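Hi F.,

I've been meaning to write this up properly since the lab meeting, where we talked about keeping a consistent format for the predictions we share between groups. The idea is simple: the sequence comes first, exactly as it goes in, then the structure tokens exactly as they come out, then a line or two of notes. No screenshots and no reformatting. I'm using this chain as the first example so we have something concrete to point to.
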Amino acid sequence: MITEDENEIVLVSIYGEDKPGVTSQITEILANYNAEILDIGQADIHQSLSLGILVRFRKSQTNVGGGVLKDILFKGYELGVKVRFVPISIEQYNEWVGKQGKDRHIITILGKGITAKQISKITEVVAEQGLNIDSIKRLTGRMSLNSEDTTLRACIELSVRGTFKDRNEIQAKFMHLSATLGVDISFQKDDIYRRNRRLICFDMDSTLIKTEVIDELADRAGVGAEVRAITESAMRGEIDFQESFKRRVALLKGLDENVMQDIAEKLPIMDGADRLMTILKKCGYKIAILSGGFTYFGEYLKKRFGIDYVYANELEIVDGKLTGNYVGDIVDGHRKAELLRMIAQFEHIDLKQVIAVGDGANDLPMINMAGLGIAFHAKPKVKSIARQSISTIGLDGILYFLGFRDVHIDK
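Output, unedited:
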């Protein structure tokens, strides 16, 4: 049993200009007095150091009030940093340790820039829910001051601890702030699954690519306006996907097969897709396309990105012409969820380790099934139902939701 008489706990806070050797020289002094490190943390912002060391001294082994504190003060003066000592009681320490076992969550704030107002409003929700912020990390590189830089992105990650009062309430408030402040906010439990995602499933049209292929085909067939009207209605969830699919495919009757190759070669790839795919493949992720679009274009993307699975719809072609019919079952929202589960089972991957990304109402079943479901540049109805969303930057924003940092991504 540790008692106050036997031990003295001190929080040593050091701050000033960051330079090599500060941590080494301070801990060397502590080592000379047989100090035990109970906790340590360091941050460096614009060459300004903030170092905290929580140490325990055995009173029987050293004169805490004299030698060690004096030596640290002298060393701080020599190094040009300021030093502050705060005594911590055994009761205070035990209370702090007791809080460490509570649930932890990660809040990721993502956008083209991060403002004080955004952080203020988000952390206000954190405080209202009785959560405590343990740490704040910047995941993106240093911000460029060039306003014309089209690759601007900023991301910080908050680690929060405690039991929130109402998950639905905190999620709803984050969604509201996301819409009103122009920032993406992810709220995830910090557990083993978040750190070990293994499968990612993408919608294709308006997710991996910047267009709806069926609209491109319709333009070539001279029925663009009719097909787009049906597409938009389906994406908003106003009409059944299967019915909308049949009506749109029927309008393509007579289109020449060669048109598909021309469209495939000119597909506009979504911003951030190349960067995202490169990192996912390096890290061994399994990647799938689960699309209500067409296999012809999915196979093209498979070759480009090294995608492992492609499930989409097959257009019927006779004598080099589209017949207005399709082959096999329609890949709708329900089928996407089934396929996600099937791939996860085949790869022996827990659903909590699966990521699903899409923009339309027919993506919601797989988004809600996955451990991390992301509505990407989605319609308002989809964003309101999905737990996470990205609307401010490209697909590579997903990397920050997974905890990647630019310093690792861009090597």
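Notes:
Residues 203 and 301 are 12 Å apart (CA to CA).
The first strand starts at residue 7 and ends at 17.

If this format works for you, I'll send the rest the same way.

G.
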